[in-house]
Amino acid sequence: MAVLYPQSEFRPPPGSTRLVLIRHGQSIPALADQPFDLHEGHGNPPLSDRGLMQAERVAARLASESLGAIYASSLVRTQQTAQPLARQLELEVVIEPELREVFLGIGEGGRFRIMAEENHPAVDAVRASREWGDLPGAETNLELTERVVGALEIIHDNHPDEAVAVFCHGGVIGAAVGHVMSVNPFRLSGARNGSITEVVRTPNDWILRSFNDAGHIGSLFTDHDPSVVG
Predict the structure, then answer these.
(1) Which domains are present in the chain?
(2) Against a cut of 0.90, is the pTM above it?
(3) Residue 34, phi then psi, degrees to nearest 5
């Protein structure tokens, strides 16, 4: 009788951590004459009604996952997005400040969205160079990547052989995936609101499993957000 060797499913090596990265839901619109409140220098808008709906859809998508922990950044929009899943799984949301969005310098408080919509020369320069640090006062690609990867490494150290939900931001996801793939993080910072990206931190390496999975959110054509971060 022939010996059968079926195609196997992916299994993370022992000691690995599945990092399920979720971009927060849509936040409220920016207004030219009413900047967002700041938290430690970062714009801190809450979710819009659409963003709250996206948070519920994320929870429905992930409710059956065996998650060992839920993390969120220090900004309110990630914490709001995490809450429906945390309630369902009866887990506390652990705040990790280093998961906050890229610091945008002169673009903070919602100004970057307005500048992007108006094709401001500073935003055009950043898009051309694919370097966040070319925006006056902003974090550089390297600074962003180092703090994001450092935060994910700590989560990995605390959760070997577990899956962990990490509610974060578009720029953070770009930095994480850019690190895994050795790609400029700016090229990967356009994940949709409520989308899911999965990377695996093994004891010796990083593996990308998925990027920008938003099938649970709905039609792409109902989204409108001129920025690539948030």
Answers:
(1) 13-72+87-158+186-195+212-230 (3.40.50.1240)
(2) yes
(3) -145, 80
